[in-house]
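Severity: low
Component: inverse-folding endpoint
Summary: output formatting inconsistent between runs
Steps to reproduce: submit the following structure tokens with default settings.
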């Protein structure tokens, strides 16, 4: 019983920690959405506005859902997608130290996808 509670606590810490830290990267990007001219990298060739919108979904909306544990596994998919683009496209030719942060986020969200949110979440209520 104690082991299960510790596992659920660990999953909550993982969810809240990784998502809270990712929000610090996403929230500053919100104001770019309302700029007269949107300037944002377009690594997928879908346009700067669309790229920024996708980044905001993965770095702001999804982490909020993950923090509260609502539709957690589904919410990890945009976060994982954004981190894959960061690691394998945007920073593909950069040194490891440059892409390391995005890779750590990617690993954390994959673990959340596989393990689920734990009992301290809306999903488990």
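Observed output (run 2 of 3):
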């Amino acid at each position: 019983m104690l082991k299960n509670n510790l596992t659920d606590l660990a999953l909550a810490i993982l969810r809240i920690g990784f998502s809270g830290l990712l929000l610090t990267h996403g929230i500053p990007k919100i104001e770019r959405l309302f700029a007269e001219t949107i300037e944002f990298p377009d690594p997928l060739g879908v346009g700067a506005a669309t790229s920024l919108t996708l980044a905001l979904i993965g770095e702001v909306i999804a982490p909020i859902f993950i923090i509260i544990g609502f539709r957690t596994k589904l919410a990890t998919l945009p976060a994982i997608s954004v981190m894959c683009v960061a690691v394998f496209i945007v920073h593909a030719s950069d040194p490891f130290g440059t892409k390391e942060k995005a890779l750590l986020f990617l690993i954390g969200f994959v673990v959340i996808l596989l393990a689920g949110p734990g009992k301290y979440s809306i999903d488990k209520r």
